[in-house]
Write a structure and sequence with these properties.
The chain is an alpha+beta fold. Helix content is about 50%, strand content about 15%.
Length: about 200
């Protein structure tokens, strides 16, 4: 019975991925490798979701705010989280200079599933689940099920509200690559570690 339930959940998430794929027209489930380029800032309004699925680190009183759009199935997003984020957190967030929000951008089913699970969790549990999933290279679905069991909660199928929010994000903000960063409402066009750390050091003086 448990196996049948898992198969049904997987089939539903697969269907959701196909729906998001067609909603995004010619977009694909994988993202191109980011080419090396000089760091520049593009004047872009701050992009926010209708519902706040973001996970925020840092003080509300921080003078600057960085938004990081990510997808659980994006290898570049995980690389950024594992290599660049610890430096940003230590040098800028913990010193009170910067507040950072990780906002899901659902391209893969893992991210849609994560968004659904966060609706059942309190803030600290959301953060723990997010960090576990970004650090693991194993099956995201299996890891999510195990983590939710730890919280004494079960994985549920995406709600109509979550699906609507996912479609809103992918239709309104068609990013061609991830992670996508916005500092104080302005898009950063290069997220390679050396560039972004040097840029933040200069900008947050």
């Amino acid at each position: 019975m448990k196996r049948i339930t898992s198969i049904l959940i997987f089939a539903i998430f697969l269907g959701m991925s196909i729906a998001i794929y067609y909603a995004r027209s010619s977009k694909f489930f994988w993202l191109p490798h980011r080419s090396k380029q000089t760091l520049r800032i593009e004047n872009t309004p701050t992009i926010v979701s209708k519902k706040d699925y973001g996970l925020t680190y840092g003080k509300k009183t921080a003078p600057h705010h960085l938004i990081n759009f990510f997808d659980m199935g994006c290898t570049h997003c995980k690389t950024f989280f594992r290599t660049t984020w610890p430096i940003i957190r230590m040098c800028f967030v913990e010193t009170g200079k910067l507040q950072v929000t990780f906002t899901p951008y659902p391209i893969h089913t893992e991210t849609l599933m994560f968004m659904t699970c966060t609706e059942k969790l309190i803030a600290i549990e959301q953060q723990i689940l997010f960090e576990i999933l970004m650090e693991t290279d194993t099956s995201a679905m299996a890891t999510m099920e195990q983590s939710m069991e730890t919280f004494r909660k079960s994985v549920v199928t995406p709600t109509p509200k979550t699906i609507k929010e996912a479609l809103f994000l992918t239709r309104q903000h068609e990013f061609t690559e991830l992670p996508m960063l916005f500092l104080d409402g302005k898009q950063l066009s290069n997220t390679e570690q050396d560039h972004i750390i040097n840029f933040l050091e200069e900008s947050l003086k």
